[in-house]
Amino acid sequence: MEDEDDWRQCAEWLNRCQILPDDHPSLGPEGNAIHLVQALMDGVALCRVLDILSQHQLDVRSMKDFSPTPQNSQFLCCQNIRLFTQLCEKEFSIPKPYLVQPNDIYQAKNFGKAIALLSKLSLSDRAKLSGVTGFPPENSELQTTHEYYNNLEEYAATLDKLTESTRNNYAQMEEETKEKLYDTVVHQGSSAQHSINSESLTARGSCIREIVDTERNYVDLLRMLLEVGSLIILPIHTILQKYKSPLTGVLSPEELDEILKYIDELHNIHRELFGNLMLATNQNMHVISLSDVFLQVRDRLLIYGEYCGHVQRAQSLVVELMRNDVEKRTRIEMCQMNSEKFSKFHLTELLTVPIQRVLKYHLLLEQLRKLTPADHPERAGLLQAHEAMKELAQSINEVKRDLDTISAIDQIQARLVTIMCVWKCGVKQQPQHSNPNFQGSFTTAAIVSPSFLSYTRSWPL
């Protein structure tokens, strides 16, 4: 075990960074280095660790070269790893000799060097500011040159035959991070601001209260986002007016429209939804049932499919503005600091909350349905409302998957076009009958796996 101690220390460090979950195979008694290769080979976890070590100052997820769902594409996985190494050098001052090539990790050609890079990163001055203890401990050395790593490449070639469960560990961690954001911003500990008379002490009553309270908090968030882009002083007393004034005249109307597209419609929809929930849970009024509240709004919630398709562009624009314009970055940061309960969240993070919220309705209604007696007058309606929200969630998840696939193909196409343009320019500059550099130029283009060419045959180059 001593010979293998470096990769295990690396896995434990990634766990301290909240990148690998506690039950990851590499952390178990039967774990081995190939489990760690499998966790890192798509480059997603590597990029995520930079976000953690930079204390979220590096929003890698919004960078154009980052692919959050490479879907086993060697091209996109290697692109993620390449981005990781570039940021290690640029943002964490890692010396060039420590940097790795994508295949050192993806195909485990030199995994020992990869661990040495991660060790150097974990002990860098900027990483130390995050408070995460690096590896190895003081007065100890890595064993990355040991022959244990020599055979990893042949094992890595069989990874496609392994189970997909460990490939999804990072995705699970990413979802847990989103859940924490949602719980803090929307759930807020289910603050019990709304009392429900006779049902207030029952499990069913608590469930209803959670639906109402979290909807109130969500409407507050949408109102805040709307206030960010408002160019008119609104007579609404809200902490989010602290966002509006600093941004007025700093961001252009086009930039504000792009960042906050659909937020106005969502705010109107959920403000009405919240009002109807208040009516449905008022014991002194029988205007509308709880199930009808969701059935009536079902079709209007289909707008979330469009929002889901747009939110990544909005996030990318925020990152671009903050990277390239000092005044805009300063104003946005000022808004964040002054937004009280939302102050620890970046605008790019808050923009993901609407998707989290709409995917919660069927879960909340399912819980309420289970707590509703079979002879309760709302039982049948709740069954119908739950199915409606479940179908909505499935539809939105399908949109998300389709968009991930399209994004992956677009990135491959863009890189292919760039490679081919560079290659063609190189050919034009050399005589056709004798080109000593031709083989090298073609090798550059050949980093794209042949399996991807079938996607691009009809694409104009």
UniProtKB/TrEMBL annotation:
<dbReference type="GO" id="GO:0035556">
    <property type="term" value="P:intracellular signal transduction"/>
</dbReference>
<dbReference type="Pfam" id="PF00307">
    <property type="entry name" value="CH"/>
</dbReference>
<dbReference type="GO" id="GO:0016477">
    <property type="term" value="P:cell migration"/>
</dbReference>
<dbReference type="InterPro" id="IPR001331">
    <property type="entry name" value="GDS_CDC24_CS"/>
</dbReference>
<dbReference type="InterPro" id="IPR001715">
    <property type="entry name" value="CH_dom"/>
</dbReference>
<feature type="domain" description="DH">
    <location>
        <begin position="203"/>
        <end position="399"/>
    </location>
</feature>
<dbReference type="InterPro" id="IPR035899">
    <property type="entry name" value="DBL_dom_sf"/>
</dbReference>
<dbReference type="InterPro" id="IPR036872">
    <property type="entry name" value="CH_dom_sf"/>
</dbReference>
<protein>
    <submittedName>
        <fullName>RhoGEF domain protein</fullName>
    </submittedName>
</protein>
<dbReference type="GO" id="GO:0005085">
    <property type="term" value="F:guanyl-nucleotide exchange factor activity"/>
</dbReference>
<dbReference type="GO" id="GO:0005737">
    <property type="term" value="C:cytoplasm"/>
</dbReference>
<dbReference type="InterPro" id="IPR000219">
    <property type="entry name" value="DH_dom"/>
</dbReference>
<dbReference type="Pfam" id="PF00621">
    <property type="entry name" value="RhoGEF"/>
</dbReference>
<feature type="domain" description="Calponin-homology (CH)">
    <location>
        <begin position="4"/>
        <end position="126"/>
    </location>
</feature>
